[in-house]
């Protein structure tokens, strides 16, 4: 252990550095492996010993770059060892479902949310389904269906027009019947109205005759008196003068001083007379 920390090493007297040659070992065949530190992406059970490995446990793994690709995304494979029996477990990335796929050495535990997600239709599956439906679609059948729909709509529109025309004709017939009934009832109403007008005119005539009768009233002769009474009456008539309204003075804008009210007198307080 002490040799590990020294700065210089021991070289024997017969050491010949020229005898040391640099040799290259054979290249490793197969994909390149890179040691990485990762956590288990899902909970799993080892097939060899039945050990459960929970999600998030850390491992020293080897990363392998595979030739598989999803569109332009590279797929990676990882190798780990079981914590109990050291059996090799391999899993790889799944960009399509944004998850990981267990390949060998272990079995993935059941996850309800994952089953529901896998049951849903992905975008790629939906595009494939639409493409298949478009390929299976027959343009002639679609044209026939459109023609049939157009004919049905035209037949429905014609039937509606016919119903509206029949209803309008029935309404006009009912209106004519009502007008005939009104015409038949009109002479009776006019006759009654004329009779009422004649009765009112006769009543007014009789009232007018009663008002125009002359009523003769005998007027007593007026005796003119002479003497002091007549003189007094003449004097009164002469002295009667029509009162004329006095003319209003022009408005004045001069300031007027109001007299102050004596509040003391209202309260019963009497002021003493000044001595001087």
Helix content: 40-55%
Count the helices. How many?
5
**What shape does the CA trace take?**
elongated
Return residue spans where pLDDT drops below 50 for at least 5 consecutive residues.
214-226
Average pLDDT number? 79
Reported for the largest beta sheet, the result is: 5 strands, antiparallel
Largest sheet strand order: 1-4-5-6-7
Percent of sequence in beta strands: 15-25%
Number of strands: 8
Summarize the structure.
This protein has 276 residues and is of the alpha+beta class.
Account of the 3D structure:
The radius of gyration is 65 Å and the shape is elongated. The chain has a five-stranded antiparallel β-sheet with strand order 1-4-5-6-7, with no helix packed on it. The termini are far apart. With 276 residues, the chain is an alpha+beta fold. Strand 5 (73-81) and strand 6 (88-94) form a beta hairpin. It is 40% helix and 18% strand. The chain has five helices and eight strands; from the N terminus they run E-E-E-E-E-E-E-E-H-H-H-H-H.
Topology:
Elements lengths: L32 E7 L4 E3 L5 E2 L4 E13 L2 E9 L6 E7 L4 E6 L1 E3 L3 H8 L3 H14 L2 H73 L16 H12 L23 H4 L10
Antiparallel strand pairs: 1-4, 2-3, 2-8, 4-5, 5-6, 6-7
Which terms would index this structure?
276 residues; alpha+beta; single chain; five-stranded antiparallel sheet
């Amino acid at each position: 252990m002490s040799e590990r920390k020294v700065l210089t090493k021991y070289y024997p007297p017969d050491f010949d550095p020229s005898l040391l040659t640099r040799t290259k070992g054979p290249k490793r065949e197969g994909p390149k492996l890179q040691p990485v530190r990762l956590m288990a992406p899902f909970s799993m059970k080892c097939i060899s010993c039945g050990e459960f490995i929970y999600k998030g446990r850390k491992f020293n793994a080897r990363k392998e770059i595979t030739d598989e690709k999803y569109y332009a995304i590279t797929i990676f494979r990882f190798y780990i060892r079981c914590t109990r029996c050291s059996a090799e477990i391999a899993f790889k990335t799944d960009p399509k479902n944004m998850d990981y796929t267990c390949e060998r050495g272990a079995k993935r535990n059941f996850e309800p949310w994952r089953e529901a997600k896998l049951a849903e239709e992905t975008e790629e599956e939906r595009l494939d389904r639409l493409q298949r439906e478009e390929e299976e679609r027959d343009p002639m059948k679609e044209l026939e269906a459109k023609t049939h729909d157009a004919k049905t709509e035209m037949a429905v529109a014609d039937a509606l027009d016919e119903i509206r025309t029949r209803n309008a004709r029935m309404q006009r017939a009912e209106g004519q019947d009502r007008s005939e009934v009104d015409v038949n009832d009109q002479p009776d109403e006019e006759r009654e109205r004329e009779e009422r007008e004649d009765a009112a005119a006769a009543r007014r005539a009789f009232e007018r005759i009663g008002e125009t009768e002359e009523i003769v009233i005998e007027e007593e002769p007026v005796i003119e008196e002479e003497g002091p009474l007549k003189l007094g009456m003449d004097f009164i008539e002469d002295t009667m003068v029509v009162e004329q309204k006095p003319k209003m003075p022009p408005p004045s804008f001069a300031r007027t001083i109001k007299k102050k009210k004596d509040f003391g007198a209202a309260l019963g307080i009497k002021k003493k007379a000044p001595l001087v």
